[in-house]
Hints:
The complex is a heterodimer of chains A (201) and B (216). Chain A is mostly helical and 201 residues long. Chain A is built from 7 helices and 3 strands; from the N terminus they run H-H-H-H-E-E-E-H-H-H.
Amino acid sequence: xxxxxxxxxxxxxxxxxxxxxxxxxxxxxxxxxxxxxxxxxxxxxxxxxxxxxxxxxxxxxxxxxxxxxxxxxxxxxxxxxxxxxxxxxxxxxxxxxxxxxxxxxxxxxxxxxxxxxxxxxxxxxxxxxxxxxxxxxxxxxxxxxxxxxxxxxxxxxxxxxxxxxxxxxxxxxxxxxxxxxxxxxxxxxxxxxxxxxxxxx
Amino acid sequence: xxxxxxxxxxxxxxxxxxxxxxxxxxxxxxxxxxxxxxxxxxxxxxxxxxxxxxxxxxxxxxxxxxxxxxxxxxxxxxxxxxxxxxxxxxxxxxxxxxxxxxxxxxxxxxxxxxxxxxxxxxxxxxxxxxxxxxxxxxxxxxxxxxxxxxxxxxxxxxxxxxxxxxxxxxxxxxxxxxxxxxxxxxxxxxxxxxxxxxxxxxxxxxxxxxxxxxxx
Lengths: 201, 216
C-alpha cells in the first residue's frame, strides 16, 4: 500500500533489519530458507478479530446476557442515578431505567461501555505483551472506560432533560465516538508503555 | 541565510527515526501527541461528517438498494431516504400487513466515519501524502462496510420484523443468519472497524522496534 511505497528513512531502517537477520541466519549451520511468517500487523488483526468475535458471541449468549450483562447495566444505572442525584436531579431508578419528572432513559446494550471494553480486551490480547501487563492494562482500561461511560450517561440524561433536541446526535455520534476513542487511546498508551525498550547493539 | 543554516533548517523535516534509538519517554510522547491531536481532529471530523451526512446517507441507501436487488428475481426492494437520515425500506410486492415501510436510521450506520477520520488525521509523524492516501484506502473499505451493514439491516427486517410475512418467506436458519449477521455487523464490527483499519496502517509506527524484532 501507499505506506510501503512511500517509506522514508524510518521505513528503510525497518525494512533493512529483517534482511540483515535473514542473511546471518543463512550463513550459519542451517541452510534452510527462512520460514515465511505472517506480517505482525496481519497477525495482530487476525487475533483481534477472533477475540472480538468470540467475546461478542459469548456476551450475546442469552444466559450470559441475562445473568451478567443486565445486572452489570443495572449497576451502571445505579451509579449514574447516584451521580445525577448529587447534581441535584430528582432521579429514581428501576432496573436499567432512570426516570425524573423531566426525562427518562433506559440504559441498554451499546450504552453500558461493554462494547468498548471488549474492543480493548481484543486489542490487548492481540498485542504481544506479558500476561501480567495485559491483565493490568485490561483492569485499568476497563475502569477508565466505565468512568467515561458514567460521564456519558449523566451527560446524556442532562442533555435529554434540558436540551432534548440535541439528544439523538449526542447519544449516537458524540458519546459513542468518545467512548470508543477513549478505548483506542487507552490501548495506544498501554501498547506504547509495554513495548520493550530495544537492547543496544 | 548561509548554506549551513539552510541545512540545519531542513533536518527536522525528516521524522525522527523510530525504533532502535527511541527512548521510552519519546515513545510515550508520540502517544500523547496523538491524544492531543485528537482533541483538534475529532471536532473537525465531526463537522465534516455533519456536512456530508445527507449525501452519504443517500449514497449508502441507494447502494444498499442495488445490492439487495441483486438477489431478487424482480427488483422489489425500495429504500427511500427520509429527512436526510432515515432509510425507509419498502417492497413493491407487499406491505406485509402494514409493517412496511421499515425505518432504519442511516446516520447510526455511518457515524463511525467520525472516529476513522479523527484518528487517521491525528496520527503523528506521517507525511501529508501518505496520511491522505491511507485515509483514502480506509474510507473505501469502510464505505463498502456501511453498504453491507444496511443490506444486512434490510434482510434482517425482511426475515424477522414483518410478522407472518417473515415467517412465510424465511426459515429458522435464514432468520438466525440475518439476525446474527445484523447484530455482529452493526455493533462490534461497526465500532471496531475504524480502529482495526488504523491498526492495519499504523501499528508498525506505534511499536516499530518490537515488530522489526518479531520479523527478524
